[in-house]
Structure formats: C-alpha cells, structure tokens
DNA sequence: AGACTCACTTGTCAAATGACAAGAAATCAT
DNA sequence: ATGATTTCTTGTCATTTGACAAGTGAGTCT
C-alpha cells in the first residue's frame, strides 16, 4: 500500500504518532474515481470517509430553479464526505463528483466509528478536522459578506489555484455566488486592467 | 438548580437518558450576562461552553475597513461558544455580546473535555451539536448564493422572528450581507408591496 | 428644557451584477 | 472528419445594491 500521504496526513495535527498513524491507515482501502464519475449522489447516504490523494473533486447542490450550485472544491490531501449525511445517517442533499481522475483511501462510517471508539487520538483528529472545516466555512461566509465578486475570485485564485485549472467556469462562478458571464468578465478585466 | 431546560436539551438528540442528562447538567454552573455585556472579546480564548436559557446574543467580527459584521444570532435553547477558538485553544477573531439580559449554564473547556472523556453519550451529543452547526452554516451559505437580500430577510423573519425583535437593524443588515439602508428599504417595501 | 447621541429612514446617483441572447471556441460522439 | 454539444465570451439593457448625505424621531445626560 502506497498510502504514505495518508499516513503523513494523520500525523499532521500532531496528535497521532507515526506508528499509530500507520496502523490507522491500514484500515483504509484504496479507491479510485474516474473523471466525471459521482462519488456521492443526492438522496444517498454519504458512507465513505475519503482521503483524496490525487485529483480534484467538487460538491454541488441544486437551487429551487434547478441550477447546479457548487458548494465546495477538494484537492489532494483533503478528506471528502458530506458531514451531515455521514454523521446523521440521512440522505445527502448534495452530489460529489470527480473533476479529474482521482485516487485515494477510504473507510466506511462503521469502520470510522470503530476507530473513534478504540483510539482516542483518532477521535481527536476527527474532531479537529470537523472544527477546521467549520472554521473554513465561516471565513468563506465572511468573505461572501465583506468582499466583492472580484476579490473573492482573486482570493480563490491565490488560495486554490489548482481548482481554477480543473473546474469549468460555471462551477467556479456558482461557488463564488455569481453568474458565469460575470465571472467571464471578471477574468477578462483582471488581465486588461492596466490596458485600454 | 432550575436547569430543566438544559436537561431537556441534553436529551434532545435521543442519545442521553434522563438520569444521565441530570448528572451531566450538574456539571454546569449558572451564568448571567447583562444586556450589552460581552460574553467573549476578540483576542481572548473562548473557554465557556454556554447553554443560553433565556435572552438573545450575537457574534460579530470586524471587516478590514473596521465595520462590525454580525456572524451569528443566538436565542434561548442554543449553545454559545466560538468553535475554532474553543477547541483549538487559540484567540477568537470574534466578539460575542448580549442583545438582552441573558441567563444560562456553562462549563469550561477543561470540564467539557473531562465529560467527553468519561461519557461516550455526551461525546456523541457534542459531535451532533457540531455537525448541526456545520449544516446550518452550509445552508446559510447556500441561501447567500441563491437568494436575494429580500428573500434572505424574509427567511430570517420566518425562522428567527425573535431575533428581529431584539437586534438593531444594522446588526441584522450585516448578518444578511447588505447595508443598513438597503435593509431599511426592504422593510419599507415588504409592507407596501401591494400599494404604490 | 436643551443639546446629544443613536437608530432608523429616505433621496439621489453610481457601481456591481444579472438576464438574455448571439457568437466563437473547444470538446465529444459516432 | 463532421455534426452536435458544451464552454466561454461579449453585447445590450434592466435590476439590485451601495455610497453618501440629510432628515426625523426616540432616548439620554446634565
């Protein structure tokens, strides 16, 4: 198993020692998701806690009008699962789909819970991940309130440049809360802002 | 101790039995926060996990320009603390302030951790609360992307009518991501939408 | 009472963004 | 390859929202 990246990841919070990380990683099974394949479909229960090793994914919901709204992007080194569906065992409102071919490692809800039960340090790790996701959402919310569309785009470009390279414009636009034509204009503008 | 509401709350996820709920509630101490008093100041570590029994509170941050941005409202029956600061033991970026006189029950981080350690059912309860908060933020984010300011205001009015009665207009406006004059116009408009 | 502050409203104008539609460019299926 | 589909860009115009400023009214302090 070439799960070195997962083992590193488990140690990243400093609460899990190398040997324990190796043991925990042993409970994960490998998974690959082909480009455009769905990792999770709305209506299903999110049951895989998936460490994404290589590739990019996105999550999206539908607004009342039926349009797709991208709610998250994921790159290598992140864990992909729908929090509410996974922990509450209820159908997901969101879809998760691979933007590129993806590879990684997963465990099921049941296995995760077993590990949480038997390993306090892994439980702490899981909480830390949840808290981190929560904080990330909060800061995105703050950006949505205080920044202009252009600023939000530039922030995404800076903080997540790979995403911009792999996601289609309309997904990025709905993630930023703007229309695709507006984003197209923002892109055109930021290049020529000095010219004309 | 008249902590019946807290005891009920602990049982609300169905994972904690009445007797256990009573014992856990016994670890909480009572707290009152006077109107306009700060429950938490930016720069401090959030160290109280506070079950708000009666009253209303809000959380707010400052944007780069220095203006207050309200990030959350809390009413009776909710738990008030800054997730990231509390669990990561880092200074809070947010302030939390009482909108009205408040009463409730709290435990410190250390005590909470002790309970998490000794009582699996309370640990599950804590996770459930975190997951609920996470899901709430996600749906607020979705509303911010897909709904107009008027729709967001009407949703708040419907889902949290008490808040609107106790928070000043400008706090509500920044929570909704609009200026106070826009909110004032929205309010004026929704009354007269049938008239001229 | 009188002067102050604070919360809210309203007017005017500008800026940001959306709606809709047409066209160019890239991608895909057969 | 070719036609179909999707993706992205661009034009025109409408709508939403913001910026700024003035005004009203309610409460507060001395």
Automatic annotation (TrEMBL), chains A, B:
Record domain Cyclic nucleotide-binding: where: 12-116
One Pfam match: cNMP_binding
Keyword Kinase: yes
One GO cellular component term noted in the UniProt record for this chain: cytosol
SUPFAM superfamilies membership: cAMP-binding domain-like
Keyword annotations of the record: Kinase, Transferase
Organism domain of life: Bacteria
Protein name: cAMP-binding domain of CRP or a regulatory subunit of cAMP-dependent protein kinases
Source species: Hymenobacter arizonensis
Lineage summary: Bacteria, Pseudomonadati, Bacteroidota, Cytophagia, Cytophagales
């Amino acid at each position: 198993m070439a799960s070195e990246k997962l083992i590193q990841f488990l140690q990243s919070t400093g609460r899990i020692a190398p040997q324990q990380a190796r043991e925990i990683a042993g409970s994960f099974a490998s998974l690959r998701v082909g480009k455009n394949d769905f990792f999770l479909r709305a209506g299903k229960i999110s049951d895989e806690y998936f460490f994404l090793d290589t590739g990019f994914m996105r999550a999206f919901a539908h607004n009342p009008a039926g349009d797709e709204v991208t709610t998250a992007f994921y790159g290598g080194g992140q864990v992909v699962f729908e929090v509410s569906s996974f922990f509450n065992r209820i159908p997901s409102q969101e879809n998760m789909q691979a933007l590129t071919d993806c590879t990684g490692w997963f465990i099921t809800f049941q296995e995760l819970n077993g590990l949480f039960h038997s390993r306090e340090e892994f439980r702490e790790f899981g909480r830390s991940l949840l808290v981190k996701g929560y904080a990330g959402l909060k800061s995105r919310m703050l950006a949505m309130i205080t920044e202009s569309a252009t600023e939000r785009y530039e922030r995404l470009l800076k903080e997540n440049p790979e995403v911009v390279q792999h996601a289609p414009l309309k997904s990025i636009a709905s993630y930023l809360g703007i229309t695709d034509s507006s984003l197209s204009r923002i892109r055109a503008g930021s290049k020529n802002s000095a010219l004309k």
